[in-house]
Amino acid sequence: MTEADTARRPLDGVRVLDCTQMLAGPFATQLLADLGAEVVKIERPEVGDITRAVGPAVGDSGVSSYFASLNRGKRSVELDLSTASGAAAFERLAAAADVVVENYRPGTMEEWGLEYDDLRTVNEELIYCSISGFLEGTNRDLAAFDMVVQALSGSMSVTGEADGPPARPGIPIGDISAGMYAGLCVVTALYVRDRHGGQRIEVPMFEGLVSWLTERAGRTLATGDPYPRMGTAHPSLAPYRAFETADGWFAVAVGSEGTWEAFCEAVDRPDLAADPRFATNADRVEHREELTATLEPLLAERSADEWFDLFRDADVPGAPIRDTAEVFADPQLRDSAVTSDLSLGGVDMPLVQFPALFSEVDTGTDRKPPRLGEHTDAVLDRALDEDARRSVRDGEP
Questions:
Q1: What is the mean pLDDT of the chain?
Q2: Do residues 268 and 316 make contact, with C-beta atoms less than 8 angstroms apart?
Q3: Residue 175 appears among annotated catalytic residues
Q4: Are residues 87 and 59 in the same domain?
Q5: Where does the pLDDT of residue 396 fall: very low under 50, low under 70, confident under 90, or very high at 90 and above?
Q6: Same domain, 122 and 190
Q7: What distance in Å separates the CA atoms of residue 154 and residue 165, rounded to the nearest whole number?
C-alpha cells in the first residue's frame, strides 16, 4: 500500500477541501486521502486543528499522536475563513475543487458566506458535505461532542456491567460513525455527479449512531423493553462472554449447538454437552448463572494464548482480549498489508490505512501528516493572483 507513481488509486484526480478538525471530519477526509484524493486541509493561522495541541507528541517530531492518526497524506493551508480575504481565497479554491467537507457548528460556514448555496455559484459540480451533531430538529444547535451523542443515542445505555452504571464505549463511535457515513456519502455523490450534478450532503452523528443499534433496536421495538446492559455477555446466546484465564481475559463466542459441542470437547468437558441444563442454547440462557459458575474455574486453568491455540484447533470462536499495544504486535496486521510504513520522530506508526483491498486499484498513503501551513504557498499560488495572495498573507480583513 504505497503511493508510487505507477499506483492506480480510486479517487486519483479528486480534489477535496477539508474544513474539519478533531475526529469525525478528519476521519472522513483521511478515508478519502487513503483512496487517492488530494486533500487540502484548511487550518486557522498559527493555531491549526485543535488536535495539533493534544498530546502526547510522536517522538521528537513535534506532531501530536492524535493529529498524526487522522491526517496522513493531507496538505495543510493556513487560511482565516472569517476574513473577507480568506473567504475569497477559499471561494477560488472551491471553484476548482470537487468536494468540500466541513464540521463546524451549524451556521458557521453560512456566516462566512461559504455555505453550499454560496459556493455553487462558482462551481455547480461541487459536492458539499457537512458533518454535524444532529439533523434539523430539537437538538440541531446542541454542542455535539461524542460523549453527548453516545448518551442520547442509546449506545451508552447498553454498555457496561448489568449491575453497574452506563459506560462510554472505549472508542469514540459517534465521531467514527459520522466520519464513515461522510466518506461513503461523498463517494456516492461523486459516482452520481454525471447524472445529478453537485449536491449538498448532511451527515449527523446522532442519527447515524442510532442506526448502529441495528438488532438492538429491533429487539427493543419488538418487545417494548430497553436492550439490557450485560457487560460482555449476550442476552440471547450462552456462553457468549469474556472469561478470566490464568493470565488475562478471553472472549468466548458460542453461537450454535455444533459449536457448543466442540467447545465442550476443547475444554475437556464433553459431559457438559449432555447436561440437560445446557443441552440447547435456550437451556444455557435459562441457566446462564450455573453455566458461568461451571466455566469460570475451567477457563482459569490455562493462559489466554493456550486457550486460543486449543480453540483454533477445535474451530471454536474465541480469542484473547488484546490491549492496544498488543494488537500492533499481532502479525495478522502486517500479513494483511493494511498498515502504513510511516515513521515519525523516530517512532514507527503502523496505522491501519483503508482496511479493504481492491484487485485493480491501490489504497493508502505513505506521506506524513503535514506541518501547519506546509503547503500554503504551493496551493494558493496555484489558485490566486498576486494581489489576492498578498492580501491573504498579510492577514487583511
A1: 94
A2: no
A3: yes
A4: yes
A5: low
A6: yes
A7: 13
Domains in the chain, number: 2
Q: Which one-letter amino acid corresponds to residue 73?
A: G
* Residue pair 2/362 in contact by the 8 Å Cβ criterion: yes
Looking only at the bridges linking them, the beta strands covering 38-43 and 75-78 are parallel
Domain boundary among 320, 355, 379: 320
Helices and strands of the chain, counted as H and E runs: 18, 11
Q: What does the alpha-carbon distance between residue 92 and residue 90 come to, in Å, rounded to a whole number?
A: 5
pTM, rounded to two decimals: 0.92
**C-alpha cell of 32?**
478519502
Q: For 9-36, what is the mean pLDDT? A: 97
Contact 298, 249 (CB under 8 A): no
Distance CA 177, CA 23 (A): 11
- Cell representation of residue 379: 496551493
Taking 90 as the threshold, does the pLDDT of residue 58 lie above it? Answer: yes
End-to-end CA distance of the chain: 43
Instruction: Judge if 79 and 132 occupy the same domain.
Output: yes
pLDDT tens-digit map of 318-357: 999 999 999 999 999 888 888 988 899 999 999 999 999 9
The active-site residue out of 80, 175, 323, 362 is 175
Q: Which residue has the cell 469525525?
A: 24
- Taking the C-alpha atoms of residue 356 and residue 336, their distance in angstroms, rounded to an integer, is 10
Query: CA 384, CA 376: separation in Å to the nearest integer?
Result: 11
Q: Which three cell numbers stand for residue 295?
A: 466455566
- pLDDT value at 215 more than 80: yes
pLDDT digits (tens, 9 = 90+) for 137-172: 999 988 889 999 999 999 999 999 999 999 999 999
Residue carrying C-alpha cell 480575504: 85
Q: Select from 160, 144, 164 the least CA-distant residue to 152.
A: 144
**In terms of Cα–Cα distance, which of 97, 116, 96 is closest to 106?**
116
The CATH code of the domain that includes 191 is: 3.40.50.10540
Domain that holds residue 314: 240-244+249-320
CA 88 to CA 94: how far, in whole Å? 10
Q: Closest Cα partner for 296 from 368, 245, 370, 362? A: 245
